[in-house]
Write a structure and sequence with these properties.
It contains eight helices and seven strands; from the N terminus they run E-H-E-E-E-H-E-E-H-E-H-H-H-H-H. With 214 residues, it is α/β, with parallel strands linked by helices. Helix 1 links the parallel strand 1 and strand 2.
């Protein structure tokens, strides 16, 4: 089993930390364009970092392609049928089980089985499951902070002790990135008002984007 993985340094480290079939041949690349130099004799392609050109003929050769697309669905991205979605946000790749949205569950499932990676297939919806839940928790934490319920440190500690989560909501937000959280909540809130963005979170987001522009 030869698998090409386009990933940044952090994503590569998370994948290496997983229990992978020792017979699997993982080839890590820094950018999607680099895979043009690789012989087409591979079984699957994971594009976890950078943009991807769906008009590229290599995506239409029938081999499974997995992309890091938490917010946009396969339908929204107009992805070919051989493309599946996974959650490649920081911290999620080293999880024991990956969430996968796919048109071809049997084919995609065989890839994960050969790699000794656990997968659960979910609906092709924004945020899938874990990212949606964590984003909502982060949003509620910003509501609580704004209302003066407690401090950032105390909210993080309470969530870790009370739910046994590896991170508190504000720690998750730092790890995942405020822009990712904001964009997912914005997408979800269009159809479900439960995901309306906390004013403080929105304020922090615009402060961050404004500082990046300046």
């Amino acid at each position: 089993m030869k698998v090409i993985v386009v990933a940044n340094v952090d994503q590569r480290e998370e994948i290496i930390s997983k229990n992978t079939n020792p017979l699997a041949d993982l080839v890590f690349l820094k950018s999607f364009s680099d895979h043009r130099e690789i012989h087409e004799n591979y079984d699957a392609l994971f594009v976890l970092s950078g943009d991807i050109d769906f008009s590229d003929r290599k995506l239409h050769n029938g081999k499974p392609v997995f992309i890091n697309s938490v917010i946009e669905t396969l339908e929204q991205k107009k992805a070919p049928l051989n493309v599946s979605r996974i959650n490649g946000w920081p911290g999620f790749l080293k999880r024991q089980t990956w969430e996968v949205a796919s048109h071809h569950k049997i084919i995609a499932g065989k890839i994960f089985e050969a790699m000794d990676w656990a997968a659960v297939f979910v609906k092709d919806e924004p945020g899938m499951i874990a990212a949606r839940v964590i984003s909502m928790i982060i949003n509620e934490a910003f509501f609580a902070l704004e209302e003066g319920v407690s401090t950032i440190e105390e909210i993080d500690l309470a969530m870790k002790l009370g739910t046994n989560y590896p991170y508190g909501p504000f720690e998750w937000q730092q790890k995942i990135g405020l822009q990712n959280i904001y964009r997912l909540l914005q997408n979800l809130s269009v159809k479900d008002k439960r995901y309306l963005i906390a004013p403080l979170l929105e304020k922090k987001y615009f402060e961050l984007t404004s500082s990046q522009i300046n």
